[in-house]
């Protein structure tokens, strides 16, 4: 065994969805966001896991990403596309029965011309300035759109992971101003928005990261476990260095393990000299620079020679590891490499 072992607990994903689902009222639909291949964990498998729990609405970023969901679940579910109706997407939107979330007047025109009568939703910009129609654009097409019976009208919160941020209320007010009284099905909240409370839930919520065990959903069950095999162990004397650039040197005699994973596997180089691997409850610091395929780890504190060391485990969550690398859990998950031996369990 020469690569890391990535274990993905599908039961954790189901439990996280169910808990997030219970946070909103009975008449609020809880969807699942499976963009970026299910946050790196295999969107088809995630979808197949969530269907029996009751998920019937899935969101992807790009039309191409929907094919894995359709392959698994056939026509039993609705798949929405955040990027809307892009040039070149018409056949895919038609053949896979996708619901594009139209972001602009141009996309609306393209959709109505290319696929008249085909379902669509609308994405509104309420201040994030990323995707969606702005208030003036919406006002110009609103009556036309309402007459065409869109499947969903949605927007996205920029600061939902900070509950006290004034932007949340501001965007909520803007969303209401743009959509109140139109009789349309509405969605505003992702994981962070669900936690902000029922005012933010409208008719459908769209959790992503919370399903996969990441912040801001603090009570998420962990989903991934990553264990790395030790290739070699050596003893170094005081003053010896480890790895490229001699960025770490031993202040006392030390025992160094070289494990088989590196930045090519998504273990960011920013973790150099800056995080730990774990052997049961014992932290073993990363020493020296993270290489492409290897990481040096100080295992001096361990009573025996380890065969593996864990980097994502009960002692170090995706968010804790992300913190060490100066990033967020989303980036750790979606960077998980293709070389790991992936094992899916359901416990
Ligand atoms: C990614 C995304 C989501 C899911 O967000 P999480 O923070 O992962 O729950 C929901 N809506 C939109 C528009 C997104 O881009």
TrEMBL record:
> Which residues are recorded as modified (N6-(pyridoxal phosphate)lysine)?
35
Tagged with keyword RNA-binding: no
Q: Which CDD domains match?
A: PLPDE_III_AR
Q: Does the keyword Isomerase feature in the UniProt annotation?
A: yes
Q: What positions does UniProt annotate as the active site of this protein?
A: 35 (proton acceptor), 244 (proton acceptor)
Q: Which InterPro entries does the entry link to?
A: Ala_racemase (IPR000821), Ala_racemase/Decarboxylase_C (IPR009006), Ala_racemase_C (IPR011079), Ala_racemase_N (IPR001608), Ala_racemase_pyridoxalP-BS (IPR020622), PLP-binding_barrel (IPR029066)
Which GO annotations describe the biological process of this protein?
D-alanine biosynthetic process
Which keywords does UniProt give here?
Isomerase, Pyridoxal phosphate
A GO molecular function assigned to this protein is: pyridoxal phosphate binding
Documented EC number(s): 5.1.1.1
Q: Where in the numbering of this chain does the Alanine racemase C-terminal domain appear?
A: 223-345
Instruction: Output the superkingdom of the source species.
Output: Bacteria
What are the annotated GO cellular component locations? cytosol
Which cofactors does it use?
Answer: pyridoxal 5'-phosphate
Q: Which Gene3D superfamilies does the UniProt record give?
A: Alanine racemase, Lyase, Ornithine Decarboxylase, Chain A, domain 1
Protein's pathway: Amino-acid biosynthesis; D-alanine biosynthesis; D-alanine from L-alanine: step 1/1
- Residues holding substrate: 130, 292
Task: Return the HAMAP family for the record.
Answer: Ala_racemase
PANTHER family xrefs: ALANINE RACEMASE, ALANINE RACEMASE, CATABOLIC-RELATED
Name used for this protein in its record: Alanine racemase
What gene does the UniProt entry assign to this protein? alr
């Amino acid at each position: 065994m020469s690569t890391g072992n990535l274990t993905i607990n599908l039961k954790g994903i189901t439990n996280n969805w169910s808990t997030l689902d219970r946070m909103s009222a009975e008449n609020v639909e809880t969807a699942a966001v499976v963009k970026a291949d299910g946050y790196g964990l295999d969107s088809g498998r995630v979808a197949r896991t969530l269907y029996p729990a009751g998920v019937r609405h899935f969101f992807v970023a790009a039309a191409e990403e929907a094919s894995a969901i359709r392959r698994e679940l056939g026509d039993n579910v609705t798949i929405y596309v955040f990027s809307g109706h892009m040039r070149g997407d018409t056949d895919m939107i038609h053949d896979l029965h996708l619901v594009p979330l139209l972001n602009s007047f141009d996309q609306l025109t393209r959709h109505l011309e290319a696929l008249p009568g085909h379902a669509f939703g609308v994405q509104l910009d309420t201040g994030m300035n990323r995707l969606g129609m702005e208030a003036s654009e919406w006002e110009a097409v609103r009556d036309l759109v309402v007459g065409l019976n869109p499947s969903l009208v949605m927007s996205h919160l920029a600061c939902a992971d900070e509950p006290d941020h004034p932007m949340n209320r501001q965007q909520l007010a803007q969303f209401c101003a743009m959509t109140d009284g139109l009789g349309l099905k509405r969605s505003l909240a992702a994981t962070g928005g669900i936690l902000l409370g029922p005012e933010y839930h409208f008719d459908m919520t769209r959790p992503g990261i919370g399903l996969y065990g990441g912040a801001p959903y603090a009570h998420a069950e962990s989903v991934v476990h990553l264990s790395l095999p030790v290739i070699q162990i050596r003893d170094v004397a005081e003053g010896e260095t480890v790895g490229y650039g001699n960025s770490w040197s031993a202040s006392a005699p030390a025992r160094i393990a070289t494990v088989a994973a590196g930045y090519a596997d998504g273990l960011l180089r920013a973790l150099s000299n800056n995080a730990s691997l774990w052997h049961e409850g014992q932290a073993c610091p990363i020493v020296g620079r993270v290489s492409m395929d290897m990481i040096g780890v100080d295992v001096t504190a361990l009573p025996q020679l380890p065969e593996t060391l864990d980097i994502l485990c009960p002692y170090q969550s995706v968010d804790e590891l992300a913190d060490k690398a100066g990033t967020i859990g989303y980036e750790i998950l979606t960077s998980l490499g293709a070389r790991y031996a992936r094992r899916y369990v359901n416990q």
